[in-house]
Design goal:
8 helices; binds S-adenosylmethionine
Length: about 210
């Protein structure tokens, strides 16, 4: 999360009263096992966007244990929609499989593999794409998935401002990833008129496809 917004963010999160047992269980599991999942306030915004878009065909890059996947697929279900989600790590893939099973959702298609290869194998169009995997590959994920985005579709990118390291001092080991993310943001500003950068959560990037 961006440190500057910490207090406002804590207030927002304190007002969210989650009741779903499985979601609570997954949040606990993620916390105890250091699994990175969307933060609470980003999860709320993500659900809102999926709902507002009346999304029927969602692609997620980066399943982890299925937390954001369950949130999105539950909303897509209202519109007779489905979720395709991909994960490179087999252990997480299996944990997500178990969680989707527990959720009772039947509108989820899971893919085990590297999104750098798997996205371009897909032969369908999506109206909502959520990119939330390795930040060093964001441009690649974006370019591959944008080709599959329907007109008026939305791409939602999480963690694009990487803990604020894009504009403040950062540990040397993150040099390449910071450079890549800065270049990616420049590229989005130059190529996508709709690109919007939101400074909450860990930074969110939104793109709408006009034609
Ligand atoms: C931040 S987590 C996803 C969190 C999830 N979207 C949520 O909020 O519940 C990122 C996940 O992307 C996966 N990942 C990283 N690189 C990937 C790649 N090239 N292809 C597919 N998955 C990848 C990681 O293994 C990790 O589980």
């Amino acid at each position: 999360m961006l440190e500057e917004l910490k207090e406002a963010n804590e207030y927002v999160v304190s007002k969210i009263k989650e009741k779903d047992e499985l979601i609570l269980e997954m949040e606990q599991f993620a916390h105890e096992n250091n699994v990175p999942i969307v933060t609470k306030e980003v999860a709320e915004y993500l659900k809102f966007m999926v709902d507002m878009n009346k999304s029927k065909n969602i692609l997620e890059v980066g399943t982890a244990i299925g937390y954001s996947g369950i949130l999105m697929a539950s909303i897509a279900k209202k519109y007779d929609g489905k979720l395709t989600t991909m994960e490179i790590d087999e252990t997480r893939f299996n944990q997500a499989k178990e969680n989707f099973k527990k959720s009772g959702l039947t509108n989820v298609n899971m893919i085990l593999g590297d999104a750098c290869e798997e996205i371009s194998k897909l032969d369908e169009k999506f109206d909502f794409i959520f990119i939330d995997a390795s930040k060093g590959q964001y441009k690649r994920f974006f370019e591959d998935s944008y080709k599959l985005l329907e007109k008026d579709g939305i791409i939602f990118i999480d963690n694009i401002m990487f803990r604020g390291y894009l504009y403040k001092e950062y540990p040397k080991r993150f040099k390449t990833i910071v450079r890549k993310l800065n270049e990616f943001i420049e590229y989005l500003h130059e190529t996508c008129p709709s690109f919007t950068l939101l400074p909450f959560g860990d930074g969110i990037g939104l793109i709408k496809k006009y034609k």
